[in-house]
Design brief:
By secondary structure, the chain is an alpha/beta fold. The chain contains 16 helices and 8 strands. The protein has an 8-stranded parallel β-barrel with strand order 1-2-3-4-5-6-7-8, surrounded by 7 helices. The longest helix is centred in the N-terminal third of the chain and has 26 residues, at about 70-95. It is globular and about 75 Å long. Bound molecules: phosphoenolpyruvate and magnesium ion (MG). This is Pyruvate, phosphate dikinase. Belongs to the PEP-utilizing enzyme family.
Length: about 350
Amino acid sequence: DDELVRAVDRIMSHADARRRLQVRANADNAEDAARARRFGAQGIGLCRTEHMFLGERRQLVEDLVLASSDEERERALAALEPLQRADFTEIFQAMAGLPVTIRLIDPPLHEFLPDYTELAVKVALAGDAAEEKDRRLLAAVKRLHEQNPMLGLRGVRLGLVIPGLFAMQVRAIADAAAAVPGARAEIMIPLVGAVQELEHVRDEARRILAEAGVEALVGTMIEVPRAALTAGQIAEAAEFFSFGTNDLTQMTWGFSRDDVEAAFFSKYLELGVFGVSPFETLDRDGVGRLVALAAEEGRRTRPDLKLGICGEHGGDPASVHFCHQVGLDYVSCSPFRIPVARLEAARAALVCAGSDTR
Ligand code: PEP
Ligand code: MG
């Protein structure tokens, strides 16, 4: 067994010596970060901060979103900030000076709100006896209720609409980074489709970072088709791009990523519209063209623009190969897929150095 382990280690170190693509992990807590490092991650490419607000903390986000006064909102933010500072401190410690890309909160809002239909039924059934508290809650939830939450108040939109939310997160990141020697924070803004959205958030983030005396890159996800199409403009305000190919695939095809098992998918496989689900392997002809275009136009604006991918495709061999070909700097995937990504990155470098056979 020892011999086998040594052989695997040898293969991996040969692969690492040959690949150009860096391999990072998607990790949201210190435990995943530690696991990612054991698998050889060179950083965290996506820390989804909305995952930090599940369980007991969910109520605080609900309080924040439904706050009816500045005081209520500030109280919720003040309760969240130390929790976030502790989250980020642990992750920076676990990554020991490797880069950590922290994405500001991007929840589909309904996950944090009481169920609208359930609440409406409860109030309706109670009639005149309905509690005042429930009536007020229903009115607040109704205001935010959306038919398509995945196309609604998510990502950067949430940050622009709820005062103080992104600022709280950036302050927590800055304070945590200041407290952990060598910490390398990269702040990532989700769901951007226009440079103006990014400029607002970036300016505020820069101000907070400067106040804390902390340096951090500020960049964006490219996951809305419009962001890819206007990448040249967006690169004016971003120090890095990370392709969110889950959303980019959903929005380019117009398929819901939450219904990938939808009835027509098996029909499409049978008809050869695609050989594999485009949510598993990057669709080169469509989504891939948007990635290539954004990479090229982004770098034309900003030659040192750092480019990565953090959608599920970052751990899929055929997609990793494509990422090498279009010149990305890194792929980021679930910790368990890191070894495969390292091997494929090396294979892509070797194959592409000759002629590409794929
Ligand atoms: C993506 O859209 O590809 C992505 C990484 O973000 P999320 O899956 O969290 O929407
Ligand atoms: Mg996304």
